[in-house]
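Hi support team,

I submitted a single chain yesterday and got back a structure, but I'm not sure I'm reading the token output correctly. Could someone confirm the output below corresponds to the sequence I sent? I've pasted both exactly as they appear in my results page.

Thanks,
R.
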Amino acid sequence: METLPLAGLKVLDLTLARAGPTCVRHLADWGADVIRVEPPGNSDGFGGARDGFDSTNLHRNKRGIALDLKHPEGHAAFLRLVATADVLVENMRVQVKHRLRIDPQTLTAVNPRLVYASISGFGQSGPYSARGGVDQIAQGLGGLMSITGEPGRGPMRVGIPIDDLTAGNLLALGVMMALYERTGTGRGRWVHTSLLEAQVFMLDFQATRWLMDGEVAGQAGNDHPVNTPMGVFPAADKPINIAASSPKLWDVFARAAGREDWLTNPAWTTPTGRTADRAALNAAIAEETRKHPAEWWIERLEQAGIPCGPINDIREVFEDPQVQHLGMSWEVPHDRLGMARVVRTPLTMEGLRPGVTRPVPALGEHADEILAEAGYTADEIATLRANGALGA
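Hi R., thanks for writing in. Yes, this is the structure output for that exact sequence:
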């Protein structure tokens, strides 16, 4: 396999749940030497068994060590690892990392080149900083649930942990920026984000509708909040998505649907008018789209240059020819499972082929080699185990 861009980068992974591991997964997939540091006795990953579907996808491409950071010798061993690390990623509560004496001030005193990366629920300071946060809480607090779902049906969560994933993606970007800065300064930096910050950022135009125009967005269901027609329409066999809101696309769509008369309806001649009369317009479109199957419409509209597509379930996603062409799943050789399938990195760098070279490590699986690299002798490692500072 080719040398990947992050080869030679040493990352200490103290993350749990999903947001932190999402950040670390980017680094691991692209060649970083990731050492997952877990407490002794931590037999399962978050969301199920260590070899379950969730952990297998989140914690691939890592080595593992089990250290008791509350034990003086375990803490001292951890500091030995910190001394030669490039990056540390954690998503503990703010007070926990200080109680364990692994906070950024303590660790950057040991290694000034360390990039210390943190994800929290609500931020590293402020009135909510001590609270624990999970994705759905951030979706609600950050406004997403108020604009998701159909009008009148009450708040609705998004069907994926969008704040966890976004915060993890953003932190990986922050890590890379801090590493780039370090090439000039020689010093690391504390970089952090939170589920709440990620969610407010992801409000995007819905946020600026309020910030600039004073407009509080509501629920729009499957319709685009401000563009019409753009949403879900029934075909003869199953629903499809159609996006034809611009003046040009609206004209082409009406003709492709065989309804040139729509173009002369005074209420529908402008984008603003179409949105104001959305219910009537959508009903008229639905009356036409029900006459033919989804594939008939997709082929016809694609030929006309109208963005459209099927609404797939998860099985259909991975059976889709474009998804298969993109190779969005990886087969993973696994010591305990034999073979597993996970979602591949969404990033492509031409000429490079990242993959999964390590399954999820068993608890403390690589402790001896990791500590030996940090300068411990075999006798010293045995003593750590005997004293309970090192697990497995």
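A quick pointer for reading it: The chain has 17 helices and eleven strands. Let us know if anything else looks off.

Best,
Support desk
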